[in-house]
Amino acid sequence: MNIAIIGSGHIGGTLGKAWATKGHRVMFGSRDPQSERMQALLESIGPNAAAASVKEASASGEIVVLAVPGTEIERVLEEMGDLQRKIVVNATILFDGRSADAVVRRLAIGARVVRAFHTSTWEALANPRFGGANATLFMNGEDEEAKMTVLRLGAEAGFDMVDAGGAEVMGEIEKALFSFWTALSPQFGRDYAIRVLRREEAQPS
Fold first, then answer.
1. pLDDT exceeds cutoff 50 at 7
2. What's 191's DSSP letter?
3. From CA 33, how far away is CA 36, in angstroms rounded?
4. Residue 18 has pLDDT above 90, yes or no
5. Are 109 and 82 in contact (CB under 8 A)?
6. What is the reported pLDDT for 201?
7. Given a cut of 90, is residue 117 above it in pLDDT?
8. Disulfide check for 26: which of 14, 16, 88, 161 has CB 3.0–4.6 Å away?
């Protein structure tokens, strides 16, 4: 699959490396694709990764991952251009009281938006395995086909993906996780994660 990742920081770089390792072709969108920092990232990932402008990367991707700081959302979406029917994965976070989900849905006209890869620290994204269990990540969206694509990509990268349902439910999960991280980070630092445990369905006798 051709995956465009807009943003090459901790979140974008970590996801890009994970998917390139699985054989996907990753194109990073950047304001400066020739920068030393970007070239170092590409070298660390290998031949399945490349970089281009934000618009070029977005056009190349079957799926576009938005992994930029919250302050950059509006500028980047304007640069991305036509997003009709593309799967846009929103991994951004806003700290100004607004909903990053609502902002991206408003600006990504015609896109099939899925909210995912934002409910964990990047350290856990880089290594989602904790003992015998994988870290749980929450996702939501309105398009079932788009969500299944994101679920598969998340599973390939080693995550236990949970569909949280609607945007309202995801908003409550985000609030709860923020409180959780605030309370536990002094004790555990950043390299920890959440796992949702489910009981297996009873098998027919």
1. yes
2. -
3. 9
4. yes
5. no
6. 55
7. yes
8. 16
Q: How many other CB atoms are there within 10 angstroms of residue 141's CB atom?
A: 27
Tokens of 13: 């770089």
Cα dist from 137 to 89, 128, 155, whole Å? 13, 10, 10
Among the ranges given (9-23, 89-103, 104-118, 133-147), the one the predictor scored with the smallest mean pLDDT: 89-103
- Spatial contact of 64 and 4, defined as CB atoms under 8 Å apart: yes
* Torsional sign, CA 181, 185, 187, 191: positive
Is 89 exposed, middle or buried (CB count within 10 Å of its CB: 0-12, 13-18, 19+)?
buried
Q: Are 169 and 138 in contact (CB under 8 A)?
A: no
Buried b / exposed e across 114-123, counting CB within 10 Å, b at 16+? bbbbbbbbbe
- Please say whether the beta carbons of 137 and 162 come within 8 A: yes
Query: Cα separation of 205 and 202, whole Å?
Result: 9
Give residue 103's pLDDT.
93
Share of the chain above pLDDT 70, in %: 98
CA geometry: angle at 153 spanning 149 and 158, to 5°?
145
Structure tokens at 46: 């290998």
pLDDT band at 166 (very low <50, low <70, confident <90, very high): confident
Residue whose entry in the numeric block shows the structure tokens 């994660």: 193
